[in-house]
UniProtKB/TrEMBL annotation:
<dbReference type="InterPro" id="IPR019734">
    <property type="entry name" value="TPR_rpt"/>
</dbReference>
<feature type="repeat" description="TPR">
    <location>
        <begin position="46"/>
        <end position="79"/>
    </location>
</feature>
<dbReference type="InterPro" id="IPR050754">
    <property type="entry name" value="FKBP4/5/8-like"/>
</dbReference>
<keyword id="KW-0802">TPR repeat</keyword>
<dbReference type="Pfam" id="PF00515">
    <property type="entry name" value="TPR_1"/>
</dbReference>
<dbReference type="GO" id="GO:0003755">
    <property type="term" value="F:peptidyl-prolyl cis-trans isomerase activity"/>
</dbReference>
<keyword id="KW-0697">Rotamase</keyword>
<keyword id="KW-0413">Isomerase</keyword>
<protein>
    <recommendedName>
        <fullName>peptidylprolyl isomerase</fullName>
        <ecNumber>5.2.1.8</ecNumber>
    </recommendedName>
</protein>
<dbReference type="InterPro" id="IPR011990">
    <property type="entry name" value="TPR-like_helical_dom_sf"/>
</dbReference>
Length: 110
């Protein structure tokens, strides 16, 4: 029963992401993660973390998205899409931190 529940929640997350309903996608992916059976394939687990990460990126929650992409990469290290999105999120987060530091620097030196 948990396998079916997890699959349904995962598919709901996918559909919510496609519909650009990212809060819902994050919620459904969380439900899927909570109901993943212990004997589930690592690739199936990775898929759910990937979907939640996509929603979190869209919601600008890059730190949490990065954690999910890293978890997905641990579960499916050969998955090209996960590798690509993980690298992109790392770059985006680094750029964001750099811009924030520059902004504070200008604020305090003015």
């Amino acid at each position: 029963m948990d396998a079916l529940r997890s699959t349904l929640h995962s598919n709901s997350a996918l559909l919510a992401n496609k519909a650009k309903r990212y809060d819902e996608a994050q919620k459904w992916a969380g439900f899927a993660i909570d109901s993943i059976p212990k004997d589930a394939k690592d690739t199936d687990k990775a898929k759910v973390y990937f979907r939640r990460a996509q929603a979190r990126v869209a919601l600008k929650d890059l730190e949490e998205a990065l954690k999910d992409y890293e978890q997905a990469a641990t579960l499916a290290p050969e998955d090209a899409a996960i590798k690509s999105e993980l690298a992109r999120t790392k770059r985006t987060l680094a750029d964001s931190i750099k811009r924030e530091k520059e902004s504070y620097k200008r604020f305090f030196t003015s």
